[in-house]
Write a structure and sequence with these properties.
Elements (H helix, E strand, L loop, with lengths): L1 H18 L2 H18 L4 H16 L16 H4 L3 H11 L4 H8 L3 H18 L7 H9 L5 H33 L14 H28 L19 H8 L3 H11 L7 E9 L6 E8 L3 E8 L5 E8 L12 H11 L6 E10 L2 E9 L5 E7 L5 E7 L12 H11 L9 E8 L2 E7 L5 E7 L5 E7 L11 H11 L9 E10 L2 E9 L3 E8 L5 E8 L2
Antiparallel strand pairs: 1-2, 1-5, 2-3, 3-4, 5-6, 6-7, 7-8, 8-12, 9-10, 10-11, 11-12, 13-14, 14-15, 15-16
Helix pairs in contact: 1-2, 1-3, 1-5, 2-3, 2-9, 3-6, 5-7, 6-7
């Protein structure tokens, strides 16, 4: 019990800040630890943090109208943040290190650092420009102690959860025993049978055996070869036609999800699939599926990839819900993924649905006949591309490369129906056999795209959406016109932009533009709604 109490003490401050209620925080911690013991008894602490974040994400209000924290608490400014801001910053301030927190959030350490800095900037703004003191916040978090009453509630809650789990396990064992129990043997009886009847029966049995053997031989002769050789993986390279035949034989995501739902006694529309993975290197090749039922249950199934036969199954009470209202259906998303990857035939290796900072996301992995591995992330409600990358084990290195202008056209067309003149380019770099292209859309969305310099195919896409309200903004393209006119620069002069973004400055959102000519560098800030010049600086490079 000592380890559980230690874990609870680390989780409690996080839950208290996220939920704003000490009583709800205690209940959430107990629920998270109990769920962690069920799902990963060998790694309960790390899983407990993951479970707690799921609980907080589903229960924490976007804004805390009420809370249990006393007046004068150093944590009060933190409580004024949005739900995602509170969650990110309290993780950074907690006893969990940033790397562990990022791993549990399933984001990179860099992304976690960016989210933390954003939350600190929000606190600075909410405090009228006063910088928060992280050490004072950490000290205040440690003052949120896990009391003796909390310890007693944790013991009682875990005992109840363990007893319930034991009862369910015993019930499952009883059902297994009942299914496996053989009927009692009947007492033998002596029966007198005429000789001619025995001979006739023997001939019939012999004929039946011959028929079965012939049927088995014919089936074996007509049976196709296994879909994949042992040890195949996502980077396997296939002979012409082999890949297409394999795709035809392996169940599609839609088909295997339907079979899993039916095996669980659910209608397909009553199942929300969280994760569907194709295990190519398993024997036999199989799908692993995790999904939620509208009945409050969570299911974990393993199905044969070709026949759809159930190989393993588990069912337990769901710890969280995933609200998919307004999401684009998964079947439509798969078509968008194929279009994004410029593919007609592909093998989907993974489909995952999740909600991250109130944003629904579809994540996909798929492969083609050459062994290329594509990773695609799309926003669930709009289908907007969030991330895209390609791993090619057979990268060619021909001497011919596309031009920088062609690379720009391909990069811009990758993110939508745009042309180069519709964006502001801030970086065009050729490095080895790739182009690195960075640009900003009129609404402030920033993209960084890596292209193969030989054929222009996209390797990676990183996107940074805008958090500001731009409904009344004049647009970055109009802002560019204003600053160029201010600098006295015309369209026929060489101007290279190095920054074009929306940021907050002294409590207001501004356009930040940096650009240079052969003789000067410029820094300009404009109000995004009025176009008013807030900062203008130019200096000579000579």
């Amino acid at each position: 019990m000592e380890s559980e109490q230690k874990t609870a003490k680390k989780l409690y401050p996080i839950a208290a800040v996220c939920l704003g209620s000490f009583r709800e925080a205690r209940a959430a911690v107990i629920e998270a630890i109990a769920a962690a013991e069920r799902k990963k008894p060998d790694q309960p602490e790390q899983e407990a943090l993951s479970q707690l974040l799921r609980i907080c994400q589903s229960r924490a209000p976007e804004k805390l109208a009420e809370h249990d924290f006393p007046e004068g608490s150093p944590l009060l400014p933190l409580l004024k943040l949005t739900a995602s801001g509170r969650r990110n910053l309290v993780l950074h301030l907690s006893d969990y290190d940033d790397a562990e927190a990022a791993a549990v959030r399933q984001i990179t350490a860099e992304e976690f650092e960016q989210k933390t800095e954003k939350a600190l900037r929000q606190m600075t703004f909410l405090q009228g420009g006063q910088q928060p003191d992280p050490e004072a916040l950490r000290a205040a978090l440690h003052m949120l102690s896990w009391s003796e009453a909390d310890e007693a509630a944790l013991r009682e809650g875990l005992q109840s959860a363990r007893a319930q789990e034991a009862e369910q396990q015993e019930s499952r064992n009883i059902r297994d025993i009942t299914q496996k129990k053989q009927p009692e043997e009947k007492r033998a009886r002596t029966v007198t049978v005429p000789l001619w009847t025995i001979i006739a029966g023997g001939l019939c049995i012999l004929a039946l055996c011959v028929s079965m053997v012939l049927s088995a031989v014919l089936r074996h002769r007509d049976e196709p070869e296994p879909a994949l050789p042992a040890g195949a993986d996502s980077h396997s390279v296939y002979e012409p036609g082999e890949f297409d035949r394999m795709v035809e034989r392996i169940l599609s995501l839609e088909a295997v999800q339907q079979r899993a739902a039916e095996a669980a006694g659910l209608a397909p529309e009553d199942a929300v699939f969280l994760s569907t993975k194709l295990k190519l290197n398993a024997e036999p090749v199989c799908y692993e599926l995790d999904f939620l039922g509208r009945n409050g249950q969570e299911y974990s199934y393993k199905l044969h990839a070709e026949s759809g036969a159930v190989l393993e199954q588990q069912q337990f009470k769901a710890d969280n819900e995933l609200n998919t209202e307004g999401w684009i259906p998964a079947a439509d998303m798969r078509q968008r993924v194929l279009k994004t990857a410029n593919m007609q035939t592909a093998l989907f290796l993974k489909e995952k649905c999740s909600s991250e900072d109130q944003l629904g996301v579809y994540k996909y992995e798929l492969t083609d006949a050459r062994g290329k591995l594509f990773t695609v992330q799309l926003e669930a409600k709009t289908g907007a591309l969030i991330k895209y990358s390609v791993e090619d084990p057979q990268t060619d290195n021909p001497t011919d490369v596309i031009s920088a202008e062609e690379a720009k056209k391909k990069a811009v067309s990758r993110v939508g129906d745009y042309k180069p003149e519709d964006v502001i380019f801030t970086k065009t770099k050729f490095d080895g056999n790739v182009y690195l292209i960075a640009f900003t859309l009129d609404d402030g969305t920033q993209y960084t795209i890596e292209l193969n310099a030989n054929d222009g195919m996209t390797n990676t896409v990183d996107v940074h959406p805008v958090s500001a309200d731009t409904s009344k903004a004049i647009g970055l393209l109009r802002a560019r016109e204003i600053v160029l006119a201010k600098a006295g620069l015309t369209g026929d002069q060489t101007v290279t932009f190095t920054k074009a973004k929306i940021d907050r400055n002294n409590g207001a959102y501004v356009y930040e533009l940096e650009f240079e000519t052969p003789g000067y560098e410029y820094e300009v800030n404009l109000n995004i709604e009025t176009g008013e010049m807030l900062k203008y600086r130019a200096w000579s490079l000579t």
